[in-house]
Every structure is written in C-alpha cells, then in structure tokens.
Write a structure and sequence with these properties.
The chain is mainly α and 295 residues long. It is built from 17 helices and 3 strands. The protein has helices spanning 6-9, 17-28, 35-46, 50-62, 81-90, 93-109, 119-123, 127-142, 146-155, 157-162, 166-177, 187-200, 204-220, 224-240, 250-266, 270-286, 290-294; strands at 33-34, 66-69, 76-79.
Length: 295
C-alpha cells in the first residue's frame, strides 16, 4: 500500500471520519504524544469513552497507521513518515481547522494549573505531554488561531515555569500579544503572563514593565481580582530587582498594595487575600519594615 501514488491512496487512509481526525492530529503535531495524553484529548474532543478510544487506537495500530512505542499509558504514539506526508498533502483547510479547534477545546478542559492539583493535572506532569501541548500551541498560532493559543498559554502560566518551558512559552505569548489590540479584555491577562515569565527568567526590570502595564489594563477593564494577583507579582519582582535606578519606587509599591487591600476588604476571597498579604509581608520584611511585615 505504501508504494501506491498518494492521491489514489489517500482515500483509503482512514476507515472513518473520527479515525481520520485522530490521524490528522497525530500527523500534524511533530512532538510525539503519549497514549495517556491522546486519551485525555480524544475523550474531550469527540466525547468518546475510554473503551472506544482504546478500540480506535488498536484498530489504527493494526492497520499500521500508527505505532505504539511502549506498553503502558506513558507509551508514545508514532506515525509512519509516509502516513504523515500523505495526511499533510490530503488534509483540507476545513479539516485542519476543525481538528485544531477541537484540540484547543480539549486542552482548555484539562487542568493546566498547578495551584489546584487534580487527577488530570497529575497525569499531565510528564515532560513529553507538556512538550506536546507547546507543539499544539505553535500549530494553533501558525494557522491563525492565536486566540485559542493565548487562552491555553495564560491558563498554563505556572506549569511552563515549573517544568522548564518558560522560554518557549515566552516566545509564544509574545506572538499572541500582537494579535490583540491594547483595549482588548485579554490583553491584561497576556501582559501578566509575560511579566511572570520574564520574572522567572531573572529579567525583573522588564517583568515590572509588563506587570505595571498589565495592572493598568486590568483596572481599566475592572478586572480587580486579576489586578490583585498582578500587585503580588509586582511586589515579588520589585524586591529582587537590582537595576539602577530602581524600576519602581517603594512609594509606588505601597500604593499598589493599598489599592489591592481596599478591594480585598470589600470582597471575600480568602485565597487571594492570603496571597496578597503574604507577598506584602515579604516585601516589608525585605525592606526592613518588620512592624508592617508582622502586622
């Protein structure tokens, strides 16, 4: 079958629309994906059961469309080079856009935050799975789906940093930023993510610049819970910033926190309160203001 001309052979690539979409996803993403990651995506993308997924995978493997390298859920799914080439030649734009939309929706339904561990998040802590998500994001941006890419990048902010994908995420977030006008409600979220990523790489002066812009945009859109989280990040970067002159004055830091305290005193959000007060105490302690830190 591999010796047949690809235009004649392409109609026989997959026995069903679902199988074809599955092979398109695996063929378009250059990063090998684990069986577990594909299962999570497939169940969200096409609302199929785990039993149906395993049946589909076994059928495609039997047809030599896919190769399962390994025996457990961490096994990687590989695609024959000929299959990959045929799919890329025969996949229409409508098919690709549909698969990308489904993929983005599936990833968004996965728990990408480390702050709230769940079974799904635990399964995602494999480096190869995170690399696969990064590869999917790159594919989304390349095919003009920056909005989907930006939402995934913002939600996975902590995960990129903790797993060593900060540099790759930084490049992708910057690419997404150009897709939004300054007045868009997504802009403060992207600026906040950029500030966090730059801060994690030790570029605190640049991080503060993005974070202060993010704060102004969040206040403009009345996104005060986000503004409070940005204030905490501003405080963290300010105390370790060694640039001369300082990127932000102590008085400005104090003003940021006081604005956050006013909002928090009027709204019951214990987790956010704990985060902001904890960072304020740290800032005060580093600055030598032990009385305010203890208060």
């Amino acid at each position: 079958r591999h010796t047949r001309y690809w235009r004649d052979w392409s109609s026989d690539v997959c026995s069903s629309d679902l199988a074809r979409q599955f092979v398109i996803l695996v063929s378009m993403v250059p990063q090998p994906m684990t069986r577990r990651f594909l299962r999570m995506c497939a169940c969200h993308m096409w609302h199929i059961s785990q039993a149906h997924y395993h049946e589909l995978l076994a059928d495609l493997a039997q047809q030599r469309m896919l190769y399962v390298v390994g025996t457990d859920e961490k096994a990687h799914i590989e695609v024959h080079a000929v299959i990959r080439q045929v799919i890329r030649h025969t996949c229409t734009q409508d098919e690709l856009q549909q698969v990308l939309a489904d993929t983005a929706r599936a990833i968004m339904q996965l728990d990408l935050s480390w702050e709230e561990p769940s079974t799904t998040a635990t399964e995602l802590l494999l480096q190869s799975n995170i690399a696969a998500i990064i590869a999917c994001i790159e594919l989304l941006i390349a095919h003009h789906r920056a909005d989907d890419a930006a939402h995934i990048l913002v939600r996975g902010r902590a995960m990129w940093i903790r797993h060593g994908f900060g540099e790759a995420a930084l490049r992708l977030v910057e690419a997404c930023l150009t897709a939004y006008p300054p007045q868009h409600t997504m802009t403060p979220h992207i600026l906040y993510t950029l500030g966090t990523l730059y801060g994690s790489r030790g570029m605190h002066s640049l991080a503060l610049r993005y974070l202060m812009n993010a704060y102004a945009a969040a206040v403009h859109h009345q996104l005060m819970p986000l503004a409070c989280r940005i204030v905490a990040e501003i405080g963290m970067n300010a105390v370790v910033d060694t640039s001369t002159p300082a990127s932000i004055t102590h008085e400005s830091i104090q003003q940021y926190f006081e604005t956050a305290f006013i909002y928090l005193s009027q709204h019951s959000n214990l987790r956010l309160q704990a985060t902001v007060y904890d960072l304020y105490a740290y800032v005060c302690a580093v600055s030598g203001n032990i009385v305010d830190a203890l208060a």
